[in-house]
Amino acid sequence: MSDKTTIRKPVDEVPPPAVATVDPRLLVREEGFKGYLTEFKRKLKGGELGSLPVIVALIIIWTIFQVKDDLFLSSANMVNISFFMAGTGMLSIGLVFVLLLGEIDLSVASVSGLAASVFATLTVNHGLNDWLAVVLTILTGVAIGAFHGFFFAKIGVPAFVVTLAGFLGWTGLMQWLLRGTGSLTIEDKGLLHMLGQRSFFMDQSIAGGYILATLGVALLLIGSLIDQARRRKARVPFRPTSEILLRTVALAVVSYVAAYVLNKSAGIPNALVFFLAALVICDFVLRRTTYGRKIFAVGGSIEAARRAGINVALIRITVFAISGGFAALGGLFLAGQTYTATLQAGTGNLLMLAIAAAVIGGTSLFGGRGNVWSALLGMLVIQSIQTGLDLLNMDQSIQYMITGAVLLAAVVVDSVSRRTQRSSGRA
């Protein structure tokens, strides 16, 4: 009797049910504040530090100087810090745009000095109307920046070389304009008066600071609610109302405390008001417009940007034009501090401080990551160090060493952060 072998048809294996991927931002929103804590820890492990390092550094710096001299956090000293950081901060805003491309602009300091000389020459030597002179001065900076961008984007000359040549050339042109006297005194009127140290928002009224604080809080709340409605309609992750209210309250506390402190002395310097307005406008351009997204795309990957149909050359030229425009505007701010255009304008450590402010504030030297608020945070750090050392009557050499150490620490944090993101697959 032969054995019969029973052949069984193999049963097809049933694949496990697919697990639906959930956007982590949606999960965070569902878990409430616990989810936000989890998300915060995840970002830290993934190297997404944001502004945390510079905020911690600022708290440490303020604590040390306040312990050394109890006048450091006085209202009068806070007014000085808020006024003197605006001029260099304007240069730093323009540099943030360039750094987002992964490039550098070494000409901003000399362009700022040239701008002060152009304005003084037009108003003092030729009697031109102040406001028309301001427009022509800023357009001069924009044209210079576009000139640099053209050689970089179209000819292929490295930005470092182009702007270094500009640094030398525009310094020479500034000296040529002032060759007769070496300096020109600018009248304390018009825009220069508004940017000067004796000019405050709504002079003789403590309401000015609180009005600005209320305006800032209202803009954040309205903008957040509009963004929430737009995202909800598009069925993409959005911030819940509870988070929007929490962020609004946090900004309100910071804003009203700052207004109270500054109002105890002279009030809000006009230079700070213009600086903050420039930050808000540029932040909107970078985060809310197609042009801003193109800048981040080019800074992230030039080849990917080209494949996406972005005109890389045009983005580069316009970014350097923006840098030149802000350099000229910063030159007017700096001229408003002394009401003079001199051969020393744009020299010294101005360039290094402007670059350091952007980098210390959190803008990456490698491109594609950062925001214009880096200019504010970085300038707060740098100006706090300068003012604190002045109160302690310490030599300027100490300031250079401390600022250099802070800058190096910022770059190290950025490098480690990028490496951590790559290892976690998020870069």
TrEMBL record:
Task: Write the record's keywords in alphabetical order, separated by commas.
Answer: Cell inner membrane, Cell membrane, Membrane, Sugar transport, Transmembrane, Transmembrane helix, Transport
Q: Does the keyword Lipid biosynthesis apply?
A: no
Q: Which residues cross the membrane?
A: 49-67, 79-101, 108-125, 131-152, 159-178, 205-223, 244-262, 268-286, 313-335, 341-360, 372-392, 398-416
Q: What is its main location?
A: membrane
Organism domain of life: Bacteria
* Entry-linked InterPro entries: ABC_transp_permease
A Pfam family annotated for this chain is BPD_transp_2
CDD domains, per the entry? TM_PBP1_transp_AraH_like
Q: How does it sit in the membrane?
A: Multi-pass membrane protein
**Cellular compartment(s):** Cell membrane
Describe the function of this protein.
Part of the binding-protein-dependent transport system for D-xylose. Probably responsible for the translocation of the substrate across the membrane.
What is this protein's record name? Xylose transport system permease protein XylH
Which lineage do the record's taxonomy fields give for this organism? Bacteria, Bacillati, Actinomycetota, Actinomycetes, Kitasatosporales
